[in-house]
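User: Predict the structure for this protein chain, please.
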Amino acid sequence: MGMVGENSAIRFDDVMIDLTVLRDRGSGYIRDLALPTLSRAVTVLDLTDGEAEERPAAISSLLREAADRLGGGVWQEAAEYSLGLVRGTQRWPKTARRAAAANLFDRKPDTYRKSQELEVLRQMADAVLELCHEARLRRSRIDMENQRHPADSRLAVQWVERFEAYNRLWTPAYALAANLEAALDTYLEEPAPHPPWDPNSISPYVPEKQARHYARAALYNLVEFQLGVKRFRSKHGGLWLMSDSETETKVSDAVYRIEWHNNLTSEDESWLRRNLADSRHEEFEHFWRVILSFPDGVRIHDKWQDLVRDGVGLTTDSEKEHSQVWLTIRACNDYMQWVDADWLKIADWYRPGSTPERGISAGELYNKLLGARSS
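Assistant: Here is the predicted structure, written as structure tokens:
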């Protein structure tokens, strides 16, 4: 592993020099470039054992991790184009990469060069320094916990980090399925003088209004999931590393199905992802305030609501097999099940022989709330 001294020797200005060289040549030429500061950084991050043959791949991994810190919006995409990290652009000339990055900001290449390009490189340099700082903290933690890991510490931490990425997708997948189920159930409820969970309310309960709220939340969760997948592909190349190839295929298939079973076009999904990445803290409220302020956003929202409404009242497996909503719910549950099960296979050093208890579902929590209110 790299020494702390190496970490402290890495300075912002030196990182900027290497990034500028890469901007001029492209990531496809890393093997031919000196890049002394980035070479030290990959050692600090334990991305290489110091072998010269590993250096290009290690620096590429570092750059992808740094780009991932930019948040998945136009700034990340601009960084990836500027440095040639987008697949197929590694050996593009600087002018072509600059034009692609400029297009993201609706700018001419020369305008982009004089304005956003420097800021893109500065953000990347800050991200590299941030990764180095975190590596130093992680190394201290590993040193303290080495005795607790029967597995090699470096390998164990890499597996944990990969499953952290899987679980960043697990959360919106869970919320997507839960909100879709809540919407479908709520559509079947009867109007009432007050909401079921608040008998003291003077506001009438309109199930359709509440169901549409759940459906809107589900669309937010879908966009969260898709943005997370995009970041995963950027950082890890879309490579699913599980305990065996069969599970890798199952997880990859579940992700594909979650993104597939809807009535949105690729342009719709791209527009939604871009707006979520650029919204304030990627929060639900700000995202929807922005989305519904555009005609395209209203159109997409209404189209999604129609899709959810079409799944109401389906009870048999054969009916659900032809419902995009129910197929999305199934895909979400499959993803969560296989990721959870595989974590226990890989991390047997963490909880040997353990079997996870099934967590409480959103529906169970809701029924528990209603029971408490009625007692």
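The chain has two domains: 4-148, 153-374.
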